[in-house]
User: What shape does this take?
Amino acid sequence: MALFGNKNNSSDEVIKVPESLGVIMDGNGRWAKKRMLPRSAGHRAGAENLKELCRNCGNYGVKYLTVYAFSTENWSRPQDEVDQLMKLFVEFFDRYDAELEQEGIRVRFTGDIASLPENIRKVCEEGERRSVNRKKMQLIVAFNYGGRRELVNAVQKISEKVKSGELDISDIDEKLISENMYLPDVPDPDLIIRPSGEMRLSNFLLWESAYSELWISDCLWPDFGFDELTQAFKDYAKRDRRYGGLSKNDKEE
Ligand code: IPE
Ligand code: IPE
Ligand code: MG
Assistant: This one.
């Protein structure tokens, strides 16, 4: 983890950059409504802003950025809106892959990708293949993602191994469950940011967020820029991650 800033100044100046960051990209609809625009304009502005977030996170030294782009529950929106979100998804990687390449950003996907339409699955496969050797940061796009569905998937995989005799029930522990999540090599998020003010995870990284720090801002996702990100990292620097233990100061007493 990287620390920036002059510690001789007030502690407000210290920035801690999480190695693994989650962002729930929420508030596109409200952003559009405020401007009397259709929701689709909000989604478009939100997609543009993802490019900015990638650049800023890459420059700060974040190693894993997981963004929530479409949940397993988002299928319940009007068909028009779902179609538009699928279209934007395809366009995003068409339009921005060159920039992501320039920034050294590897792209991966997490979620129930197998159930997506073929053209979307192709974008995922292609995006992962093209970017596999990029080293600066991993962008993990949670698409058709649900934390509960991920857990169901892990239980199914483990059950198959128990059934075939490869595993015994007594082998099932937290480590084994983590190893059966969609992307077991990606570290649990240190920090999860949710723009737009909702105080909930909405099914994002339920297993992985057990000890994530949460940072919620009223800023709507399309407006969430460098200043908000920096503020989140400043506040994160002040968090005392105890993991159920004692803080460093208490231990020294
Ligand atoms: C997030 O913005 C985008 C997706 C969930 C796909 P919303 O569309 O949820 O925006 P609000 O919450 O209605 O403002
Ligand atoms: C969470 O936002 C999902 C994404 C940002 C992709 P939602 O707008 O779907 O969440 P709720 O409905 O407010 O909980
Ligand atoms: Mg929303």
